[in-house]
UniProtKB/TrEMBL annotation:
Name recorded for this polypeptide: Fe-S-cluster containining protein
Organism whose genome encodes this protein: Candidatus Kentrum sp. DK
InterPro entries listed in its UniProt record: Puta_zinc/iron-chelating_dom
Length: 191
C-alpha cells in the first residue's frame, strides 16, 4: 500500500453491525495481501490466515478460529463459523487495522475485464447498505480500488468466486451516477 487511505469514520456503520451480530464476519473472508497479513500478525501476535494459490498469484483468507482450529468458510450467510478475529461480543479485535475489504464492506469493486472497467456492488444482505451516503461511498471506492489493485485480476476474481460470490450477482450492481443507485440507497444518501 502506498500513501494514506481515506478514513471511513464520517459515516460509521458500526451502529448497524452490533444489532446484526456482525454477520459479515461470520461467513466468507476478506482478501488479504501478504503485507496486510504480516501487519496484522505483527500487531496482534495471532495468525489465523490460510494462503490461497492461483496461477496468477497468492492471497490469504482468515481461515482459522481464535483457538487455531480451521473454520468452515461458506459464502452463504449463516453457513460458516466466525472469523478468528471476531470477539465473543461481536466486535472486531483488529478493528483499527482491519483488512481493506472489511473497511469497505458492504461495497465491493468487481473488475469487468470484457468492458475494461470496474463495476461497483453492494451486499444487499447488510442492514447498513440503505444507510450509506456519498461520503462513505467516495472513501470506500478509493480503498476498494487500492485493495483490488494489489492482486492480478484473475487472482482477485478467484477470491470473489470463492469467498464473495454475492458481489458477482447482477442484483448487487449499481452505477456511479446517483440516479442509477437503487431507490432505497439514493433516498438515504440525499439530505
Amino acid at each position: 500500500m502506498t500513501g494514506k487511505l481515506p478514513e471511513i469514520t464520517a459515516t460509521s456503520l458500526l451502529r448497524h453491525c452490533y444489532p446484526c451480530g456482525s454477520e459479515c464476519c461470520r461467513y466468507s473472508s476478506p482478501i488479504i495481501s501478504p503485507d496486510e497479513k504480516d501487519r496484522i500478525v505483527t500487531s496482534y501476535r495471532k495468525d489465523f490466515f490460510i494462503e490461497q494459490s492461483t496461477p496468477t498469484g497468492n492471497y490469504f483468507v482468515i481461515g482459522r478460529h481464535a483457538d487455531g482450529s480451521f473454520r468452515e468458510i461458506d459464502p452463504q450467510v449463516g453457513k460458516s463459523s466466525p472469523c478468528g478475529y471476531l470477539d465473543t461480543d461481536g466486535s472486531c479485535t483488529i478493528h483499527n487495522i482491519k483488512p481493506l475489504d472489511c473497511r469497505t464492506y458492504p461495497l465491493r469493486a468487481v473488475p469487468n475485464t470484457v468492458m475494461d472497467r470496474i463495476e461497483w456492488r453492494f451486499h444487499r444482505a447488510c442492514p447498513a447498505t440503505p444507510c450509506i451516503n456519498a461520503e462513505f461511498l467516495a472513501a470506500a471506492q478509493i480503498i476498494a480500488l487500492t485493495s483490488l489493485h494489489r492482486f492480478a485480476p484473475e487472482t482477485y476474481m478467484d477470491w470473489l468466486h470463492k469467498y464473495s460470490p454475492w458481489a458477482l450477482a447482477p442484483e448487487a450492481a449499481f452505477g456511479l451516477n446517483r440516479t442509477e443507485w437503487p431507490h432505497q440507497l439514493q433516498s438515504s444518501t440525499e439530505g
